[in-house]
Design goal:
Largest interface: A-B, 49 and 42 residues
CATH topology of the largest domain in chain B: Dna Topoisomerase Vi A Subunit, Chain: A, domain 2
Distance between the termini of chain A: 44 Å
Largest sheet of chain A: 5 strands, mixed, barrel
Oligomer: heterodimer
Number of helices of chain A: 9
Strand order of the largest sheet of chain A: 1-2-3-5-4
CATH architecture of the largest domain in chain B: 3-Layer(aba) Sandwich
Number of domains of chain B: 2
Strand content of chain A: 15-25%
Order of helices and strands of chain A: EEEEEHHHHEEHEHHHH
CATH class of the largest domain in chain B: Alpha Beta
Strand content of chain B: 5-15%
Number of domains of chain A: 2
CATH class of the largest domain in chain A: Mainly Alpha
Structural class of chain B: alpha/beta
Order of helices and strands of chain B: HHHEEHEHEHEHEH
Helix content of chain B: 40-55%
Helix content of chain A: 25-40%
Number of helices of chain B: 8
Number of strands of chain B: 6
CATH topology of the largest domain in chain A: de novo design (two linked rop proteins)
CATH superfamily of the largest domain in chain A: Recombination protein O, C-terminal domain
Structural class of chain A: alpha+beta
Shape of chain B: globular
Shape of chain A: elongated
CATH architecture of the largest domain in chain A: Up-down Bundle
Strand order of the largest sheet of chain B: 4-3-5-6
Number of strands of chain A: 8
Radius of gyration of chain B: 22 Å
C-alpha cells in the first residue's frame, strides 16, 4: 500500500453500519485492497452529495483519506448503479445475499481481485441472465473456489476413487463428495442426485456464457440450493441471514399472498398499553 | 463497546452514572464523564428533572394500538383526530419520520409506523417489523390509499416493494413518495438512480 494520505479505488458497497448522527461505516470490496471499511460522513442527510453513490449494491469509484482507525471517504462517483437490481424485490434480495456471502468469507485488507471481478460479474448477470437461481449457485460455487473452499466433486474425498454415476453423498465436514461405500462411516452426509452432481461439476468448469445456457427444473435447482446452503453454513458456522429471507420470498412466489382473516368487530382485541417499545 | 474508564478518584455513584451515559448512542466515555460532572455541579432541581423525565418516558409512553406510533394515549392523538382523512395511510419506518411528515402540514391522513425496515443481511425480515398489524388494519374497506414513505435507501426500497406486493392484491391503491432531487442540491452530484427517477417523474411546469 502506498503511503500517500489519500488513495482511490473502485468498490462495491457490501454493508452499512450507522455511526453517530448522520454518518455511516461502509464495508466495501475493492480490487486492490480486498474488503475494507471506510467512514462516509453526513451521508444519512437528505442533501448528501455522496449518499446515492454509496448505496448498497453500487459499484463506485471512491476516494479515501487515511485516518487513525478508519479511513474517510471523501468523494464517490457511481460506475454502475445496477438499477434493475434495485427496482425488483427478488433481484435485490439475491444481490444482497451475494454481498453478504462475500462479506462473510473475505478477510479485511486481503487483496483478491478475482473475487472482486466475480462479485461484479455476478451483479451484472443478476440483471441480465435468464435464470437468477443458477446465477446464485454459480456464484456460490466460484466464491468458495476463490476463497479456498472449493468442494471436491470428481472423486471420493475418503478413498479417492473416481465417482461413479450413481447417487453419491455430499459431506460438508470433509469438503466434498464421498462414494456410497465411504458415506456410511461419515456423519452429516447428504445424498445428491446424478443430475445435481453433473450441474455442480459443469459449473466448476464452465464460464458464465455456458452456465447461462443451462436449463434445469425447479426440483434440481432446489436440491442444489439445499446442498450449497448446508456447505456454506457449515463453513461459516452460522446461518446466512439473507438466505432465510430468500427462502421466504421463494415461498411467497409459489403460493398466493396469505391475508390474515378479518377481525370480528365484536371481539376486537383490547389495547395492550404495556407493550414495550422496540 | 464502551471503554473501561479508569476513574479511581471518583466515587461509586459518579462511576455508575458515567457508565450509564456511555451506553447511550453517540456518547463516548469522555462525553459521559463531562455530562456527569456537569450534573454534579448543577442544582438539585435540574438533576431531579432529568431523572423524572427519564422514568416518565418509560412509564407513560406506549404504542398506539392503531398505528403503532409512540404516544401517551391510546389511540394516539393523530388516530383520534376526527378531522383527519381516514382513507389514507402513510407508512413510515420510525416515529421520527412522523414528526418530519407532520412538520410539513401537507399530509392530513393517518400513519402506520413499522419500527424498522426489512434488511435481509441484518436478519430483519417481515416478521420483525409491524407488517402484521398493518395488514390487520387494512382489512375492511375504509382505507383507500396507502402511501409508502419508507426511506429511499436499499432497506426502505425493499420494504416498499415487499409491502406493495402484499397490499395491491387487497384492492387498495398503493403509492410511493416521489423520488427525485432534494431541494437545494446541485445536479452534478446526483447519482444515476436518483436522476433517472427524477427524469421519469418530471412534472408539467406550465401550470
Amino acid at each position: 500500500m502506498s503511503e500517500s494520505r489519500t488513495y482511490q479505488t473502485e468498490a462495491v458497497i457490501l454493508k452499512k453500519t450507522k455511526l453517530r448522527e448522520a454518518d455511516l461505516i461502509l464495508t466495501m470490496y475493492t480490487p486492490e485492497f480486498g474488503k475494507i471499511q471506510g467512514v462516509a460522513k453526513g451521508v444519512r442527510k437528505t442533501k448528501s452529495r455522496m449518499a446515492g453513490h454509496l448505496e448498497l449494491l453500487t459499484h463506485s469509484q471512491i476516494s479515501l483519506t487515511r485516518g487513525r482507525n478508519l479511513d474517510t471517504i471523501t468523494a464517490s462517483q457511481t460506475v454502475n448503479s445496477f438499477m434493475p437490481l434495485k427496482s425488483d424485490l427478488w433481484l435485490s434480495s439475491c444481490a444482497l445475499y451475494c454481498t453478504e456471502l462475500v462479506n462473510q468469507f473475505a478477510e479485511e485488507n486481503l487483496e483478491d481481485e478475482r473475487v472482486f471481478r466475480l462479485l461484479l460479474e455476478t451483479l451484472k448477470q443478476l440483471c441480465d441472465a435468464p435464470n437468477k437461481e443458477l446465477v446464485l449457485h454459480y456464484y456460490e460455487l466460484h466464491l468458495l473456489i476463490e476463497v479456498g473452499y472449493g468442494p471436491q466433486l470428481r472423486e471420493c474425498v475418503i478413498c479417492h476413487a473416481p465417482l461413479t454415476p450413481v447417487v453419491n453423498y455430499f459431506c460438508a465436514p470433509v469438503g466434498g463428495m464421498v462414494c456410497p461405500n465411504c458415506a456410511a462411516a461419515q456423519i452429516g452426509v447428504h445424498p445428491l442426485s446424478i443430475n445435481a452432481q453433473k450441474v455442480l461439476r459443469f459449473f466448476q468448469d464452465a464460464g458464465w456464457e455456458k452456465a447461462n445456457h443451462l436449463k434445469i427444473d425447479a426440483d434440481l435447482c432446489h436440491e442444489i440450493e439445499r446442498v450449497m446452503n448446508i456447505y456454506l453454513e457449515y463453513l461459516l458456522e452460522r446461518n446466512v441471514k439473507s438466505a432465510d429471507w430468500l427462502r421466504s420470498l421463494r415461498e411467497m412466489r409459489l403460493k398466493p399472498v396469505a391475508v390474515p382473516p378479518p377481525r370480528p368487530l365484536s371481539s376486537a382485541p383490547p389495547a395492550t398499553p404495556t407493550e414495550t417499545i422496540p | 463497546m464502551p471503554k473501561e474508564i479508569n476513574t479511581t478518584p471518583a466515587t461509586g455513584a459518579i462511576n455508575r452514572l458515567i457508565q450509564e451515559f456511555s451506553k447511550l448512542p453517540g456518547i463516548g466515555p469522555k462525553s459521559a464523564q463531562r455530562i456527569t460532572y456537569y450534573l454534579l455541579r448543577s442544582g438539585q432541581d435540574q438533576a431531579v428533572a432529568l431523572a423524572d423525565a427519564i422514568s416518565l418516558l418509560k412509564q407513560e409512553v406506549k404504542l398506539c394500538s392503531v398505528c403503532c406510533n409512540v404516544s401517551e394515549s391510546d389511540p394516539c392523538p393523530i388516530c383520534q383526530n376526527v378531522s383527519r382523512d381516514r382513507a389514507m395511510v402513510c407508512i413510515v419506518e420510525q416515529p421520527q419520520d412522523v414528526v418530519a411528515m407532520e412538520h410539513t402540514a401537507v399530509f392530513r391522513g393517518l400513519y402506520h409506523i413499522l419500527h424498522g425496515a426489512i434488511s435481509p443481511t441484518e436478519g430483519v425480515g417481515a416478521d420483525n417489523i409491524r407488517i402484521k398489524e398493518l395488514l390487520a388494519r387494512l382489512q375492511g374497506d375504509s382505507i383507500k390509499e396507502v402511501i409508502l414513505a419508507t426511506n429511499t435507501n436499499m432497506e426502505g426500497e425493499q420494504t416498499a416493494m415487499y409491502l406493495s406486493r402484499l397490499i395491491i392484491p387487497l384492492g387498495i391503491k398503493v403509492t410511493r413518495l416521489a423520488r427525485g432531487l432534494p431541494f437545494g442540491t446541485e445536479l452534478e452530484y446526483a447519482d444515476d438512480f436518483t436522476l433517472s427517477r427524477a427524469i421519469e417523474g418530471r412534472q408539467d411546469f406550465s401550470g
